[in-house]
Amino acid sequence: PGAGGATTPLPKAELHLHIEGTLEPELVFACARRNGVQLPFADVEELRRRYVFDDLQSFLDLYYLAMGVLRTERDFTELADAYLARAREQGVRHAEIFFDPQAHVSRGVPLEVVLDGLEASLSTAPERFGISTRLIACFLRDRGPREAMETWEALEPHTARLHGVGLDSAEVGHPPDAFEPVFARARQAGLHLVAHAGEEGPPDYIWQALDVLGVERVDHGIRAIEDPALLARLARDRTPLTVCPLSNVRLRCVPSLAEHRLPELVDAGLLVTINSDDPAYFGGYVDDNFQALKRELGFGDDVLRELAANSFRASFVEEDERARLL
Ligand code: ADE
Ligand code: ZN
Prior knowledge:
The chain has a single domain, classed as TIM Barrel, CATH 3.20.20.140. 48% of the residues lie in helices and 14% in strands. The chain is built from 17 helices and 8 strands. Strands 1-2-3-4-5-6-7-8 form an 8-stranded parallel β-sheet. Strand 4, helix 9 (180-188) and strand 5 form a beta-alpha-beta unit. This is Adenine deaminase. Substrate binds at residue 278. Pfam families: A_deaminase.
């Protein structure tokens, strides 16, 4: 059941989920112990006490530090298994999962270890958890377009194992347009395209993601609310936004959930979806986000059902496959 009580959580797809952001403190310590990694925290409680953030960067510092314990295929397999077990409890039937290749390759973990480890879990997720999955490789925008292209060259032999590419990490000062060449290559390879834009960054970054990168979904996109022409564009094209309410509060992109302008995005006719982003860090998995909207914004069951239905409409699952998920 969801956090709200005894009711069965709505069936849903999760479209904005960083697998590294599902790394719970207990698994951090288990991996550290068996891999001989020294951590600057005494125990699980001390690590969890650090989960208080001022902004996106203060979160990313801890996120990259903690994922340093992931070294072996087994680590990535256990990470994905733990997410899937939680996701099933939250009503997730389908997950389009981000991972950050550069965050692992840059510290000496081969791409094959990451992919093989994740796939060992995900390939049997339908039978074990009733969840179908896709993988989306994200480029770390703060490492620049050159390293993104080198990363693409390393990913290209594995395109059959990927469904899309995305763009994440520190946003402000790293506009999307610089990544046009690498997104063009991914498009030529037949992959879907998404990008984080308008989380902390300005509406102009959302325009660039749409017009320069040609993305099919915008991750976060909440600052579109500041630009009426952009809202009209997103509504006209039914371009999905993957909004992450608890993340936005924890990273102080919005002052509180009660003040989140999500209702205005819905009222403007946008295809809004609800997602958990980095649930181990932000106080809840995806249905916890739904329950928080009910509690803090007074969303009724009809709106929540529509948001859950949007997650399937916004997914990259083919139309004829969708019925199976509901
Ligand atoms: N990487 C993991 N979570 C992220 C977020 N919310 N924004 C940007 N990059 C991220
Ligand atoms: Zn994200």
